[in-house]
TrEMBL record:
Residues of the RRM domain: 263-336
SMART domains assigned: RRM
Composition bias, Basic and acidic residues: 226-239
Keyword RNA-binding: yes
UniProt KW keywords: RNA-binding
GO CC entries: cytoplasm
InterPro entries, per database record: FTHF_cligase (IPR002698), FTHF_cligase-like_sf (IPR024185), NagB/RpiA_transferase-like (IPR037171), Nucleotide-bd_a/b_plait_sf (IPR012677), RBD_domain_sf (IPR035979), RRM_dom (IPR000504)
One family name in Pfam for this protein: RRM_1
Region Disordered, annotated ranges: 226-264, 342-361
Keyword RNA-binding: yes
Alphabetized GO MF terms: RNA binding
Protein name: Methenyltetrahydrofolate synthase domain-containing protein
Annotated organism of origin: Bison bison bison (North American plains bison)
Length: 361
């Protein structure tokens, strides 16, 4: 696309969903789809080549949802133009800047029912098989919408690309969590793929890392909900345990006062007004609840005591980049502490077991 000068701003197109000359023309083709005509609410990715679809949705007074960048602050933003918005204002609302300035967050408790999903692609085949940037955000967004009940297997998925991006893709490259498309729009064609490959049926937790979970609060919330519902939420790099496993009284015993064992994790830089209950809830949502927790609020720190060193190291991996309130906490393996270092602390009650359920065969 660069060598043939098919690419458009922003350039170069490497490491992004590529914008291309004629993207607005390709976007106009969505008006020929019956599914767009009957759509009331649609999700459109924030990629530049999809700007024309976002504008058409706003001009048609449809509810427009746009994913938050890298899902850091939630799943969706609803684009809400100001009352009496002119065509120029609507155009601005459809841009990435407009998405920031004219949007309101949509929470998990919102009753969202998406009629149409529009995604960007790096390459797509006429069979409906799609390749994105390789980071998996479009696949994850769709899976999260499934978990929320916002989409179903029958919800159509559209992608908008240049004709040169329609290529043969070996089926061997596809995995179960990959999103397929039903319609491909280019500047010259409208392709109905007739794809029968199932779309993701929900979040594949075994593909999610602790690091990813730590960066996405909404993903942590969904994981907690699914665990409460008895689903298997074991992470890619998370420990497994047999069904119905429980901790013995010895495992729940508090650490000796004389020292902090090597299987403990120190959390520092806690907010001044942080409460132990907030930390306990956050740890449970992340799936790293310790056997015991020693709270040292005045020192803005806490110690998490785990059954063994492997659990402690796993917790450290999950808590990288973790924020409590406005603070990004510091997480390290605790050095051994003298009893005098623990003066003024108190040991919280054991947190409930946070073991992942293991699905049957």
């Amino acid at each position: 696309m660069e060598s043939q000068n098919l690419a458009d701003f922003p350039r170069p197109v490497h490491h992004r969903i590529p914008n291309f000359k004629g993207s607005y023309l390709a976007c106009q083709n969505i008006r020929d789809l019956e599914v767009f005509a009957r759509t009331q609410e649609l999700k459109v990715d924030p990629d530049k080549p999809l700007e024309g679809v976002r504008l058409l949705a706003l001009q048609s007074k449809k509810t427009l949802l746009v994913p938050t960048p890298r899902l850091r602050t939630g799943l969706f933003n609803k684009i809400t133009p100001p009352p009496g918005a002119t065509k120029d204002i609507l155009r601005k609302c459809a841009t990435s800047q407009g998405v920031r300035n004219y949007s309101t967050p949509v929470g998990l408790d919102s009753k969202v029912l998406v009629d149409l999903v529009v995604v960007g692609s790096v390459a797509v085949s006429e069979k409906g098989w799609r390749i994105g940037k390789g980071e998996g955000y479009a696949d994850l967004e769709y899976a999260m919408m499934v978990s929320m009940g916002a989409v179903s297997q029958g919800t159509p998925v559209v992608t908008i690309v240049h004709d040169c991006q329609v290529v043969d893709i070996p089926e061997a490259l596809l995995e179960d969590h990959d999103l397929t498309v039903d319609y491909i729009l280019t500047p010259t064609r409208v392709i109905t793929t007739g794809c029968e490959r199932p779309k993701p049926a929900g979040i594949a937790w075994s593909k999610i890392s602790c690091e990813m979970l730590g960066k996405m609060p909404i993903l942590r919330s969904l994981r907690h909900q699914e665990e409460q519902a008895g689903k298997d939420v074991t992470l890619r790099d998370g420990p497994r345990s047999p069904p119905g496993a429980t901790r013995s009284p010895r495992d729940l015993a508090p650490p000796e006062l004389g020292s902090v064992p090597l299987s403990s994790v120190q959390i520092g830089n806690l907010p001044r007004d942080a409460r132990v209950s907030e930390l306990k809830r956050a740890l449970s949502a992340l799936g790293v609840a310790p056997s015991r927790l020693t709270w040292q609020g005045p020192q803005h720190r806490a110690f998490l005591h785990y059954r063994d060193l492997a659990e402690a190291q796993q917790a450290i991996a999950c808590l990288q980049g973790f924020r409590l309130g406005a603070n990004t906490v510091r997480v390290v393996l605790a050095r051994q502490q003298r009893a005098s270092d623990l003066v003024g602390s108190h040991t919280a009650e054991p947190l409930p077991d946070h073991q992942p359920a293991i699905a049957g065969p």
